[in-house]
Specification:
single chain; about 375 residues; OB fold (Dihydrolipoamide Acetyltransferase, E2P); alpha+beta; six-stranded mixed sheet; 19 strands
Length: about 375
């Protein structure tokens, strides 16, 4: 039976250096929960605290309301899948999967039944007599997953499990992991720095930076309604513009520095006239129009279903220190492909774009939550 996980005000320090200052999050029973963030943000440290591999300098971690701070790792009933698989090279697939059950001194009959079942679930029964060296990377990852699940842990922890696989295999394995997790119904905490992977596989995502959680939510919420600039730019690509809040008889609007206005009906009450803001527009949130932002094609990349254009706009309009301003053109909706040097006018979708405070720390769109 799986457990919920309650993390309350936890602190992690190495000497005088605080890695995780004061972090709280609740993970539901049976949920696929992903910790996402750049290298060094604290996500693996937090995972190791849940596992019992790292000490806790403050706060509590609970499994189903039972505090586990002082329970050693081997008594927490967790399954762990590591980045490097950590399967035994001298043991066959079946022997690797049996290992945790044998330590628990389960009967041979029960071991056979459990191993047979899990080999079917992860689709490696045909390879049960092979040594790991005879397996592909994806097959080895399935072995590691089977070994972690077969002991019927209350929590499954996965640390960057797909980072050593090639791109095509990563896509195949993330679907397999998601399907297997739902089939067995186990609470899973998954660590990755890959945004696409997190969006594809998770029930909810916690975006982390510098030991703190920036936002928690379902993948579609995190992507479409980021809580701050960090989330907006870390998850996918966002184009950032300077803006000013205005108001007239038609309502509130955001004025860009070239004078173009976009009226918005979903701004919070915090948005007051003449307030400086940051406007975040994803490449797919532009449409070609006679009115809008004037841009010139600087570069383009053909990506099959669409073309991604790198744009050049007035320097005064755009936030500095961003890699590029981009527009994605759906080739199923157009007959004209722009060439480098051509000009175009792009209208932002007022229902989709995001508005942030001048410092980028908070969304100014109604009903955007930090924790959902």
């Amino acid at each position: 039976m799986s457990n919920s996980i309650n993390i309350e005000n936890v602190v992690k320090k190495y000497g005088e250096v605080t890695i995780i200052p004061n972090l709280s999050v609740n993970i539901e029973n049976g949920e696929f929960f992903t910790l996402l963030g750049p290298s060094g943000c604290g996500k693996t440290t937090l995972l190791r605290m849940i596992a019992g591999f790292n000490s806790i300098e403050g706060g509590q971690i609970k499994f189903d309301n039972n505090v586990i701070n002082n329970i050693s790792a081997h008594k927490r009933n967790i399954g762990m899948v590591f980045q490097n698989y950590a399967i035994f090279p001298h043991l066959s697939v079946r022997q690797n999967v049996e290992y945790g059950l044998k330590i628990r001194k389960i009967s041979k009959i029960e071991i056979k039944e459990k191993v047979d079942d899990i080999l079917e679930v992860v689709k490696i029964r045909d390879y049960q007599d092979r040594l790991p060296e005879k397996l592909s990377g994806g097959q080895q990852q399935r072995v590691a997953l089977a070994r972690a699940i077969v002991i019927h842990p209350s929590v499954l922890l996965m640390d960057e499990p797909l980072s050593n696989l090639d791109a095509k295999l990563r896509i195949e394995m993330r679907s397999a992991i998601r399907d297997i997790q739902k089939q067995v119904g186990i609470t899973t905490v998954y660590v990755t720095h890959d945004q696409e992977e997190a969006l594809a596989i998770s029930d909810r995502i916690a975006v982390m930076n510098e030991g703190t959680i920036q936002q928690i939510g379902a993948p579609e919420e995190i992507y479409s309604r980021p809580y701050n600039i960090f989330v907006s730019t870390f998850i996918g690509h966002s184009n950032l513009f300077y803006g000013t809040v205005g108001k007239d008889s038609n309502g509130k609007y955001i004025a860009f520095k070239d004078g173009y206005k976009t009226y918005m009906k979903n701004l919070t009450e915090d948005c007051i006239e003449d307030m400086k803001v940051i406007v975040s527009i994803r490449p797919e949130e532009f449409s070609l129009n006679e009115e809008g932002l004037k841009a010139t094609i600087k570069n383009r990349t053909f990506l099959g279903k669409y073309i991604n254009y790198v744009l050049e706009l007035s320097e005064a309009m755009t936030i500095k220190a961003q890699a590029s301003i981009e527009y994605s053109q759906d080739l199923g909706q157009t007959n004209h492909i722009y060439k480098i040097g051509e000009s175009l006018t792009l209208k932002p979708n007022a229902l989709k774009i995001n508005i942030f405070t001048e410092g980028g720390e908070k969304s100014l769109i109604k009903d955007v939550n930090k924790d959902e």
